[in-house]
Specification:
- It is built from 3 helices and 5 strands.
- It has a 5-stranded antiparallel sheet with strand order 3-2-1-4-5.
- The two termini are 24 Å apart.
Length: 128
């Protein structure tokens, strides 16, 4: 499996996850994940047509290994062998996909009580 196939596999799992797609009329999903050697953490937002966001997380039975697989495949295909610790995946209901990977700033896409509203607006405005 190459990185494009691994990304598609992850995105398919996201749109099939009942918790991530729980918002009625969702149009866009955002998944933010942190992958370390010890753990995988993921959460996200769904947005409806009016741009209203709803916080969510994958279901307990979501296959988090799909995130680790994507990271490992990309690390193997990376000429310098570096892996990313964080990613932000964007998926539209129409099937469009966008992805960003953070290699250097572990606090990128971090959420706090002070910045979560700003982050939600930022993600709502992002194109897929």
């Amino acid at each position: 499996m190459n990185q494009n196939e691994a990304l598609i596999d992850l995105c398919k799992a996201c749109v099939q996850d009942a918790k991530l797609t729980a918002q009625q009329g969702w149009q866009k999903l955002i998944l933010i994940a942190e992958v370390t050697s010890a753990s995988i953490k993921a959460f996200g937002y769904s947005y409806n047509q009016q741009g209203e966001g709803q916080l969510g997380s994958p279901s307990l039975d979501f296959d988090m290994d799909k995130l680790r697989a994507l990271q490992q495949i990309m690390q193997t295909e990376n000429p310098n062998g570096r892996g990313w610790p964080k990613c932000l995946i964007r998926i539209s209901r129409a099937g469009e996909v966008g992805a960003d990977f953070e290699y250097d700033d572990p606090s990128r896409w971090s959420h706090t009580p002070d910045n979560y509203k700003q982050r939600m607006a930022e993600y709502a405005a992002m194109p897929v």
